[in-house]
UniProtKB/TrEMBL annotation:
<protein>
    <submittedName>
        <fullName>Type I-E CRISPR-associated endoribonuclease Cas2</fullName>
    </submittedName>
</protein>
<dbReference type="Pfam" id="PF09707">
    <property type="entry name" value="Cas_Cas2CT1978"/>
</dbReference>
<feature type="region of interest" description="Disordered">
    <location>
        <begin position="90"/>
        <end position="111"/>
    </location>
</feature>
<dbReference type="InterPro" id="IPR010152">
    <property type="entry name" value="CRISPR-assoc_prot_Cas2_sub"/>
</dbReference>
């Protein structure tokens, strides 16, 4: 299975993607293409999409851990790898702001 999530795709690339993929949501494409064809699609996207496309591609594979993640351009998420396991993390992970109206009491920090 190949899943492509993009910020924005060029119209020609988007039209071509619609030939083999379903688009359940704008700029999200899903297909059950074989592994050999999936690699060609990934290469095609890397060749024909500008960095502003913000591509994130998820491809199932027969090798451990069972999937691959590819990124191109400025994506809204960041790809990282921990102990050989590719993961996606939020870029804007900021600590929650202090809420003075919170109902939970402040727990003192251990020293």
């Amino acid at each position: 299975m190949l899943v492509v999530v993009a910020n924005d795709l060029p119209p020609a690339v988007r039209g071509r993607m619609k030939l083999w993929f379903i688009e359940p949501r704008a700029n999200v494409f899903v297909s059950g293409v074989r592994d050999s064809l999936a690699r060609k699609v990934v290469d095609y996207l890397h060749e024909h999409c500008p960095p502003k496309s913000g591509l994130m591609i998820f491809n199932s594979s027969n090798t451990c851990p069972g999937y691959e993640i590819f990124g191109l351009g400025d994506t809204r998420k960041e790809i990282t790898e921990i102990s050989g396991l590719p993961l996606v993390i939020e870029k804007s992970a900021e600590p929650p702001p202090d809420n003075p109206n919170s109902l939970t009491p402040d727990v003192p920090k251990p020293q």
